[in-house]
Amino acid sequence: MKFRKDLLISSGLYINEENAERHANWTELLFDLIFVAAVSQIALNLSYSYDFQSFIMLMPIFFVIWWGWVGHTFYLSRFGTDDLYNRFLTMLQMIVVAFLTIYAKNALDTTGFGFAISYAVLRFILVVEYLVVGRNVPGAKSLSNHYSIGFSIAALIWLISAFTPTPWRFVLWGVAIIIDILTPLTARNLQLKLPPHPTHLPERFGLFTIILIGEAIVSIVFAISNAGPNPYTEIVGLFGLIIAFTIWWGYFEEAKGAEGRVQESEEDVKNYQLWLYSHFPLLLGIVGVAAGIKNLILLKSPLPLPYDEVWLLCISLGIALLSLSGIFLSAFDWKTCLSKVLLKFRAPYYLIILLVISTGFLGTLFAGWVILALLTLLCIFKIIFSLREIPDQVCKI
């Protein structure tokens, strides 16, 4: 598919040519790392208390952190240049994210004030960036105004929530998150006029995903080291590494999550949004799986896991695999061939996801390492089935 040539704007703030090669720069990579640090803080919270209540409570905090990364990443993909202006604002946001990370640990309790203030400041910086673009790039004024208004309202609500007692503070957070999500969802026509770079943005998402998978691998290795190397911890760690490798394979080889994507029609925008929003449950699932494996390693003995911990591990892995499927399906034309792709080529894949989740029923019957072994085996089967390529003529976009 061709990228639209008429989107070239000569201001220097937005340059997006059909054959332009663009990759993440060093500033953007540093930006990714500071956000991964924030995600790691959330993962630590889950590791300390691995249960459904903690998992559900971390979801909105995790989404806010991820959404903050998404906002600036989309801005840089459309309008970013590696100059002093963008470097300064990007590094300013890194400082804010550092405070966001500090306050994220107890954001639903004692540090909610600081978390809300930090996120409000982060979004206000993004609004300033879009206002500057709207003033200097005439062709981007409509999109800039739309984003500036929506994100400003959400940021203002976050700011007000910092001075609002609980539980009303959390109500305001929910309203602000909804507005933040609806702002880009209600701008489809504007996005068609100014889509993000077709290769740069998927690369950024791919880099963020692989860094998070790497963090999961590091947490598994460190857990083995802290628990003390022995046959049990090493076997559990090996299973955990294999699962991490299968998720990597599923994202980069099977789902082609980091491949270039363009937006030239309404259908393209819908597929792009499926691709985008599938990343959040994928990353959430990776965090849940990594924390569960770490928890199993620190058990230090082949005992059954508590009932809710087994289910949380199985459901987290199921969420990750189902999200990979969403990313995979975003490359197909829904109207003409989605049912064909699902029934003829993907049925075994969904059966495996069902079996992964259903493994939770075996939690009280077998030791935790046996459950993990079964999950690892199912992930390997999933990779084997994924090697069956779908022919290009079967309505890929």
Features:
about 75% helix; about 0% strand; 14 helices; mainly alpha; about 400 residues; globular; disordered N terminus; 2 domains
What does this structure look like?
The protein is globular and about 65 Å long. With 397 residues, it is mainly alpha-helical. The relative contact order is 0.10. Mean pLDDT is 86; it is low at 1-19. The protein has helices at residues 26-48, 52-79, 84-104, 112-136, 141-161, 168-185, 188-193, 200-227, 231-254, 266-298, 307-329, 334-345, 347-358, 368-386. The longest helix is centred in the last third of the chain and has 33 residues, at 266-298. Helices cover 74% and strands 0% of the residues. The chain folds into 2 domains: 19-193, no CATH class; 200-386, no CATH class.
